User: Which sequence fits this backbone?
């Protein structure tokens, strides 16, 4: 074999080995890229707190146009203020009787932690349930008994009654006013007296007649009472009942009347002089905020009026002269800044005896215990001997 031939064989063997190596590399497993590190998990959102469950017990129906309607407007104000932080519910037409206790216990059983009872007659049933439900907060309207987990709240409705009286005293032609009373408790008697005092502030000749129906809401009875007052010479009517029946009766007889607790101007525009209204929203918002923030305390009572935005006289008719409207505005401003007191002596009872000395201003204890008529109100308070 020649040397050239030998070199050719060696070269051929080299190329063959290189090709074999290349083939092995081509058929081998491809090297994988390292796996990406797992993404960090997003932090879990904190659990949303459960809404505070709030329940309302109403003595009337939400469509009564008066007392219960005003409370339900306050409930709606709560929902608007706090949104999904709260969940509200209500039971209407709860009687002021033993059945109220069952309703309150049911509200507790449904997980409500703040319960409002919106009429005087719920006091004892609510107090009893509160004693058995220490983890629930109870609020009682117009009452006076309290506990560690129960407090009271009220509105100075007598301020609205007085302002209505100012208009009534200037609008009457017979000098005789009529009032349809619900139940003869101090709250209602105080309103009748304040209405009369307001009327007498512009017309000292005023006399007030009262017919009691002994119910908060009974339109047929309210209608009958209103008609009897008209038959007795009253040409301007006032009420401390919950429906619009008195105002509507006045309209049919072509007399004047007022709305009570809520704006009733739409029910009988021709008879409506003004509406003495309650705005429960400010107090309900405060009470709920107290509960949410942990500052709620029992054994307390609140009594709010014009000063706190809880009482007003609204929708005053164009039939009311400007001088009477001005008088109302002055009274309202005085109540708001504390410069005017409705119950300031001398004030005399219907029996002729002085009940408040000259320049003396009644305190809340005095106002809370009124069981007499002032001079000018005819008859006797039911039950008074």
Assistant:
């Amino acid at each position: 074999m020649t040397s050239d031939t030998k070199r050719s064989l060696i070269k051929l063997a080299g190329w063959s080995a290189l090709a074999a190596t290349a083939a092995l590399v081509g058929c081998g497993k491809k090297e994988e890229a390292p796996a990406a590190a797992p993404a960090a998990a997003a932090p879990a959102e904190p659990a949303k707190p459960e809404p505070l469950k709030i329940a309302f017990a109403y003595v009337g129906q939400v469509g009564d146009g008066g007392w219960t309607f005003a409370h339900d407007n306050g409930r709606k104000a709560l929902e608007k203020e706090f949104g999904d932080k709260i969940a509200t519910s209500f039971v209407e037409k709860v009687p002021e009787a033993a059945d109220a206790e069952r309703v309150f216990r049911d509200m507790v059983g449904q997980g409500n932690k703040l319960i409002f009872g919106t009429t005087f007659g719920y006091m004892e049933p609510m107090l009893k349930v509160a004693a058995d439900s220490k983890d629930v907060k109870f609020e009682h309207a117009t009452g006076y008994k309290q506990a560690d987990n129960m407090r009271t709240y009220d509105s100075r409705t007598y301020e609205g009654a007085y302002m209505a009286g100012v208009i009534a005293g200037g609008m009457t032609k017979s000098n005789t006013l009529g009032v349809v009373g619900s139940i003869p408790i101090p709250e209602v008697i105080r309103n009748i007296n304040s209405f009369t005092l307001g009327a007498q502030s512009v017309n000292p000749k005023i006399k007030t007649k009262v017919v009691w129906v002994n119910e908060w809401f009974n339109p047929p009875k309210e209608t009958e009472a209103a008609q009897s007052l008209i038959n007795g010479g009253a040409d301007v009517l006032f009420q401390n009942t919950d429906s619009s029946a008195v105002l509507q009766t006045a309209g049919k007889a072509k007399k004047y009347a007022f709305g009570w607790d809520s704006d009733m101007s739409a029910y009988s525009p021709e008879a409506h002089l003004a509406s003495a209204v309650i705005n429960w929203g400010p107090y309900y918002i405060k009470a709920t905020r107290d509960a949410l923030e942990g500052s709620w305390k029992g054994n307390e009572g609140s009594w709010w009026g014009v000063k706190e935005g809880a009482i007003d006289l609204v929708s005053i008719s164009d039939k009311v002269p400007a001088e009477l409207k001005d008088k109302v505005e002055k009274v309202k401003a005085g109540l708001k800044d504390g410069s005017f007191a409705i119950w300031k002596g001398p004030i005399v009872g219907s029996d002729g005896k002085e009940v408040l000395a000259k320049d003396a201003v009644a305190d809340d204890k005095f106002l809370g215990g009124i069981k007499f008529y002032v001079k000018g109100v005819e008859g006797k308070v039911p039950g008074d001997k």
